[in-house]
Write the structure tokens for this entry.
Amino acid sequence: MKENCKLKECDPILLCHYFDRELGPEDKEKVDEHLKDCPSCQKTLQDHQIISSHYKADLKTKLARTNFESLEQSVLNRVRDRRVFGWTNISSLLFLKRFYIPATAVAAALVIFFSVMFYPASPSDPSAIVTSLSGQISSVMIFETPNTQQTILWFKEELPLNGEDNAQDI
Amino acid sequence: MWDENKLVLHLKQGDEEAFRLLIQQYREKLYNIAYGITLDSEDSLDIVQDVFLKVHQNIRRFRGKSKLSTWLHRITVNQSLNWKRRWKRRFRWHHRPLVTEDSGDYPELGTNEYYPEKLYQNKEFEKAFREKLRELPEDARTVFVLKEIEGLSYEEIAKTLKLKRGTVSSRLFYARQKLKESLEHDLLGD
């Protein structure tokens, strides 16, 4: 036996690759040789095998209990339903969302930008009340807008009390 | 049996028979992957159903850059991992049912399988094994599942999960070590 064909020490990672049949011929030969004289690696390999077998057996039991016929029928029914409701067209629209969502966002941003930049300021908003007077008969208020000066004059009117039209005469 | 190209072509044309064939060909494999990740039978069925519906919906976008099986595996893994991330399901994930799915699985008295001590050891071992499987980080478990169930090579797993080959190797090694170490008492106790 060639000495360079043998591993110098146990290599658990290499052993894992060996178990998974991922080694090239040279490495495989090295591990094969090593395994002949290494009970510890033999045991590790055996453990891998037990774990793997147990896991597969467990899944096999699960599979045997599973009703795949009903699964198949259910999927086919749902596909038929989708055809009836034109899901294919809807899904192609949904596919377009990767385009129309960014496009909408950009458009919204542009609208906001231009409306802020170019929206004219309201010309007729009052900027300040110059003066106001309030008397017993009338009230006057004078206020300024950017371009004009406005005067508002209003008279007070005593409303008659309910059902008492002649109340003031008494 | 149709070859993959023919199957994909017919699927793209909306052929129901092709879709039925696809389901029959892959339902068990995909279920195994979903179950391997979620460890829940009923939810795995739901996941597989969703995977097939997704495939039906998106088959026109399948360009054949990877194998159909790789595409299906990838969708199943993603669906299963998403399932786990939903908060409701996450609650159930941590919740242990009082009656396990295997509670009715004991052999009858008088049969060859009935050796109480061995049975007890097996049940204990199964319980511990499942527990440790559950405790594995999902990325390690996903790699383990694809290796053990589908028998994929490191390269194929790497393509399916979009990982490097070295990452696949280290996650698989980690998963095996954890399962082995944690079960050492049950499995290897002399």
Q: What stands out?
A: Confidence is low (pLDDT under 50) at residues 163-170 of chain A. The longest strand of chain A covers residues 128-134. DSSP finds six helices and three strands in chain A.
